[in-house]
Write a structure and sequence with these properties.
Layout: E1 3-5, E2 8-10, H1 15-26, E3 32-33, H2 34-42, H3 50-69, E4 75-78, E5 81-84, H4 93-109, H5 113-124, H6 139-165, H7 169-182, H8 187-199, H9 203-221, H10 227-237, H11 250-256
Antiparallel strand pairs: 1-2, 3-5, 4-5
Length: 261
């Protein structure tokens, strides 16, 4: 995590100060109660000096922002806690990422596939590593991290799905191989790799990719592939074009996975 202003970058060195800043930024322009910050910083064992220590962290952040932006009103004291005032939600990459993914989802739903691919690609380009890397997160920040990581997968599904429907399946093969390696239990990524290989005329490799998926699911979870992917294999063996297998829209897949549309 880093704060950048006019090309100047600043990251608080103290772990708990970084944690305080992260929680304020993820709730930018909203009040974060003092109790919430204390619970995130120390959990069930806060020190007796928790109030004054938190005030010290806030003072350090104000001092840093004042040097960085020459503004003294970035971090505000507002009962029952504190708020960081930005004004533009896109100043926080996490918020811009969420907005772009939602924009891409709507565009995909409306059949605007090139725009959906661009929106989700722009969203994914904001990532430069793991979410909130370098922060020792408490349970609230861990929740934010899990949300962002799930949304990252959603963005990948939508962008890959849009590009597949635009006929870019051959170009996606290297990326899909990497996604399958990074997410070996994610059936949809396996399925898209199988379809992309088949669409490129590499039916033998597509069938091998199906066997890899079967072996992974059996070894790791004791499961067989979903019926849709078993049908995909049968169609491959029969020489059917599998690039537009019914019922496997990434939008439908995302909704079925419980990520609200």
């Amino acid at each position: 995590m880093e704060v950048v202003h006019e090309g100047r970058c600043h990251v608080p060195s103290a772990q708990k100060v970084r944690c305080t800043l992260a929680l304020l930024l993820l709730s930018a322009d909203h009040i974060v109660p003092r109790e919430t910050l204390i619970d995130e910083l120390w959990g069930e064992r806060p020190p007796r000096t928790m109030i004054t220590t938190l005030q010290t962290y806030i003072y350090q952040l104000r001092k840093s922002f004042s040097r960085l932006t020459r503004r003294r009103d970035v971090i505000l004291t507002r009962a029952p806690g504190y708020a960081i005032r930005l004004g533009d939600d896109d100043e926080v990459d996490a918020h811009r990422f969420e907005r772009l993914v939602e924009q891409g989802r709507r565009q995909f739903e409306q059949g605007r596939l090139a725009e959906a691919s661009h929106s989700c690609g722009t969203a994914l380009a904001l990532w430069r590593g793991e979410a909130l890397a370098g922060i020792c997160a408490g349970h609230r920040l861990e929740g934010h991290i899990a949300h962002l990581e799930e949304l990252r997968i959603r963005a990948l599904e939508l962008r890959v799905g849009a590009d597949m429907l635009l006929g870019n399946d051959r170009d996606l093969i290297p990326e899909l191989r990497a996604l399958v390696a990074a997410h070996p239990l994610h059936e949809w990524f396996h399925g898209e790799l199988i379809k992309a290989l088949a669409g490129a005329g590499r039916r033998g490799e597509a069938l091998h990719a199906y066997r890899v998926m079967c072996r992974t699911l059996r070894d790791e979870l004791g499961l067989e592939p979903s019926p849709a992917y078993q049908n995909l294999q049968r169609d491959l063996l029969r020489g059917v074009d599998v690039r537009e297998m019914p019922g496997d829209s990434p939008l439908r897949h995302v909704n079925r996975a419980g990520m609200a549309s």
